[in-house]
What does this fold into?
Amino acid sequence: MKKNKLLTSIGVLSLSAIALVGCGKKNNANNDETKNVSKFPIETPKKAVKQGGTVKIAVETDTPFSGIFSQELSSEDVDSMVASPGQETLFDSDDHFKVTDKGAATRRLDQKNKTITINIKKGVKWSDGKQVVAKDYEYAYEILANKDTACPRYSSQFEVLKGLKEYHEGKAKTISGIEMPDGENGRKLVLHFTELSPSMSNAGSRSLWEAVEPYHYLKDVPFAKLKSSDKIRKNPLFFGPYKMEKLVRGQSATWVPNEYYWRGKPKLDKIVVSVVSPNSASQAIKSHKFDVIPVINTQWPQVKDTKDVNFVAQIPIAYHYLGFKVGKWDKKLSKNVENPKSKMNNKALRQAIGYAMNVDAVNKRYTYSLTFRVKTLIPEIFGDYYDKSAKGFDYNLKKANEILDKAGYKKKGKWRVQPDGKPLKINVAAMSGDATKEPIIQNYIQQWHKVGLNVQLATGRLIEHNSFYDKLQNDDKGIDMYIGGWSTPTEPSPHPYYSESAPFNMARFVTAKNNKLLTEMNSQKAFNHKYRVQKFHEWQQYMNDEAYVIPIDNSYQITAINNKLTGYSLKPSEGNNGHPLWYKVGYAK
It folds into this structure.
């Protein structure tokens, strides 16, 4: 997911493709840093922690963050990073993403009765001192499903909860499947489902919501106004270790300890999260401007010898992809509607575009192989769910040309025309970012030109982050394909991103087979692990063949940490909501 979180998009190279490939081959021995980075630990050295101090965290973005501090309403990873000192979900997990009893709540699955019982722990309090209660969980579901919120995270996968579909469609005022045995102010919930999904055993399941919202604080705000409310954007409440003290909109957030935090007193006096431009990131690392700052892989050689920092690294559950616009979102029906006559609704055209991309050469040239081509839309970290036999879209101009020729995309002068003889012009959208974004995308455009496809940048330039996703979500007619990315949940189901009912399916493709496979991989039969693995493999093969969405790459995620800090860990068992558990982070004695 979290967009669910959306990742920043790759940008675009005035260098010729020949020069790029040549450079990649020539410097391959020096450009591959993966052997060094793969040895980096996933956490800082464990030391005794002292109380006090301020930690400065950098969030790298070339635009202001939107500041939607609600797990239901936010759709961007940047907002989640800014909110991470205070924002937690109810459930912790082990290192295999299985839910444990160590979080703010416990949950028990009863497959026979198709129920899940959730108990919120006593003493789990909002930063205003109010106990988190059952109604706060129900209210989060209402925000997720109410049409007035236009929540981007809602999909039919959640509709296994009884009554949720009726509530979403406005046919019911309450969600019948949510039972609160001890009342709204109790701490127990019993959820009733039409069926349980195997994904519900994992943290990050998209069949079961895992967040709560402070009903007592937000109840007077109409659903339609929640997203713009100061109670969400300026003065949010959380039950995590820190509470927001000050916000400079779009630029920084200052956090101080939440005196009511249920795990105990956090170690730091203050956390300041600030925006830094990607082009300034390497200098910020070398000058020790921040205590925690992600490394941009294209800048790795400039920072790798920096003193007094610990580098931690992992391969995140994430990937970039090329999506093709083939339909639109129907707000009235709350689903994607594919257009069979769409310009990009030709499998051969999409496949050829994929084979024309020289992804490996780009990664060697610009990221020293710290970014690497991926072959399917399921991250490899998910073990046997990942289809290791998939070949993906390797660089093959000859194959791209042959596919286009066979499909009737004939050349008429410099450019190919559509099979019906009409001109073919394709607008690709990509997001702005650091200095390498422009050359990388320009390289891909030149690759597509090589096979006779008239591809140009939508709007004529790279698009600012917030505007980029606004255009995609609103199906801007000037975009035919786009390069985007996901930071996905810790549960492998792709339903939240590619189903008929998912707003995040911004390609807007809808097929009966895709619906069938997504349903099967989350069905009762899928409690049989072998069956579920089979359906995941079938889906990956199907998606690579149809090429509505083409997997591009993933990257090592390296973070530079002040070597005086301890307790920073990227282990799933040591974090929450995909971020380090800031409660544990502090300065070493």
Remarks:
- The two ends are 38 Å apart (CA to CA).
- The chain has 18 helices and 26 strands.
